[in-house]
Design goal:
By secondary structure, this protein is an alpha+beta fold. The protein is 23% helix and 35% strand. Helix 2 crosses helix 5. It starts with a strand and ends with a helix. Bound molecules: biotin (BTN).
Amino acid sequence: MNGVKRVYFSEIESTNEYAKTQRAFGRDLLVIAEKQSGGRGTKGRSFSSCEGGVYLSALSFYQNFPASDAFVIMQSATTAVCETLVKFGLQPVIKWPNDVFVNGKKICGILIENALSGREIASSVVGIGLNVCNPLPEELTSVATTIFLETGKAVSVEEVRETLIALLYRKGTAKEYANYLGWLGEEVKIIVDEKEKTARLLSVDERGNLWAEVDGKKQPFASAEISLRVGENAIEEDKKR
Ligand code: BTN
């Protein structure tokens, strides 16, 4: 987006960690790296970040943003990634809440770290790791993919990154998010309280809760409560990441 200051690194440990150190300055900032030596994922996992991917973190400040609306940030980031992938000829789906898959494999992960002030979000760091033409570690090849692997075409990392940035600063809607939501109506595995259950995915509400039918009952789940597993390799993916 025009007007947002950018900072580029050829290599950094983690763009999210760097962006968080810049919160004290109170200015929106885009942190961009060619590669990361210690890319962070959700739930304390690592995120493989070899050269050839898009690795960026957008630090944004807000006024009057209720913490209860936090899912809007996720909606905007995931739909921006999906729209970007569509522009490069792919058909992405969102694995609730914040992963993007293509042809059953993960192509992008998103890590959002909010700073609260009372019941409001004062600032957020939206970290996006999108596989473009980066080599994947051997152990991820069955569960992850890249734009290059899916299209067979050489793609410019810079072009993908600029397309994503142009889409990132607009507000993604619940409808857009729902349009990209994967596995709707299908039976998947979810892990609730360390127990695996079969669930039929129904919808995601405006707070970001996943509605699913479990044991014949329709119920909402917050992402903090459950882990959604999809695809044959999903559990292996969770162990490796
Ligand atoms: C996940 O899949 O668990 C989330 C991965 C988020 C990775 C991105 S890459 C840019 C930013 N910097 C990080 O250290 N993590 C995010």
